[in-house]
Structures are given as structure tokens and as C-alpha cells.
Amino acid sequence: MDVPGRLPSRLLAASDSLGWRHVRAARYADPAETEPFLTRSDKLLLVLVTSGRYRIESRRGVSWRAASYRPGSVGITAPGNASVLRWRAASSEPMESLHLHLDPGAAGGAAFPDALTLHDAYVVASARVLSEALSVQAPALYADSVAQGLTVHLAHRFGKPVRQPAPAALSDREVGRVVEYMRAHLGDDVSLDALAGVARVSKFHFLRAFAAATGVTPYRYLRRLRLEVAAGMLRRTADPVARIALLCGYRSSGQFARAFRAEYGVPPHLFRR
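Above: the chain's sequence. Below: its structure in C-alpha cell form.
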């Protein structure tokens, strides 16, 4: 039997225009029932059910495996592997899912298993964080940091990771170059790849090496730096809050106000008084 190789779902949203480099996120509305179809990805594919209940079956060879899906259920397909899927709705709720195509290189060459169902609170929480990041069009540095952490966790928890020595912390000079770059690009969508290039280390080791040197992830450091600069501008200038937000890398005044209040305990307009 000739099995089609196209996902029979309707695309609702995707991260393609957001500059994310270590993960592609796509949200789909799924049909109530499907004929068998072939699924394959060169990346590590993780699927999170966000709405509805399914009875899903996977075939490799001649035998079928079955599982019941509900919101919070997760399945993964190892890079390069293919399987035949079909499903049927188990309730009248609309069926939606989030597909995450993760860069397997972040795990340093680990061998990932296939899992029709996978039970892990960290994986579910991280996938939901990336779903929210897609909804709010989060910057690449944030999404890529979460995606790399998720990939490394999957390799450690479910895969067969290749043991490698932990990367050394960045030197003071390397951290200084990275921070100088951050300051020069506060209003830009800064990527992990760019920061790793400034530090002159592999992008796969940069996140842990930076955290080892500073105690925080690059995203948290950049966020704190942006808010410190914003606080200084609020004190020293009469620039509108919207302009300060834009100069410090926030897409909207609302997003800036939420981040500022979380850091300083008051909204920007009260901080200025």
C-alpha cells in the first residue's frame, strides 16, 4: 500500500519568521480521523498534545503500537527515523498539537530513541514554554536556550549520550566580549549563534560555559542588562516608555512593562517618578 508522506493537519502558527535556530515550532489543528501516513524528520521531532483526545497508532514493519493521547501527552521521533501513523478522535473536543523540530546537535551526538508516549514533567513543561514562546513571538535567544536545555535533557534521560568533558567556564575576557556585544545590540534579536561566535567557542558549549562563568544563562543576563539600561533611561531621560522599550529590545510596551515590573516591582511609569 502506498502511504502518503504529508501531515494531514492544518497549520495554525509557526516560528519560521522568528529567527529561532535550534528549534522549529509549529502548532496544528488535527483532523478527527486519519488514514495511515508517513512521518519523518531530519531533526528530533517532539509532539505535544494541547487539546483533544486521540487513539493513535504507529507502525514500523507490519506491527502496530497504540496509545491514548490527551492534553499533555508527548511522543518523540528520533532524527532520520520514519514511521507510519494514524489516529481517531476519542472525544468531541477540538484536536490540536504542537510539533517541535529540535536540533539534535545540542546534545553532542546522542542517540535518541523513538517513543510513542513519553512521561516526563520537565519535557512537558519545556514544550509548553515553547508553545507560549510561539504565541508571544519570543526572541530567538530565549527560545533557543529552552530548546537546547530540552534536547540535552531528552538525551540524558531517554537517549544514549556520548560522554564528553564539561566545557570550561568562559574567561573574563570572553565574558567581557559577549557583554560588550550584548550592550551594542540591546535592541536586536540576539541569537546564541552570534554570542558563541563573539566568545569564539562552539555554539553547542556556549550556553553552559557562559552560565558556568556568570551563574546565569545568556538569556537571563541579556534580560537583566536590558532592564538595567532601561531603568537608567527612565531616570535620566524624558523619552517615552514605548521608545525605551524598543531601544532595549522589547517588541511592545506591554511586554516591556511586564518584564520591568517583575524585575523592579513597579511599572516603568511609576519607577520614573
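The mean pLDDT is 88.
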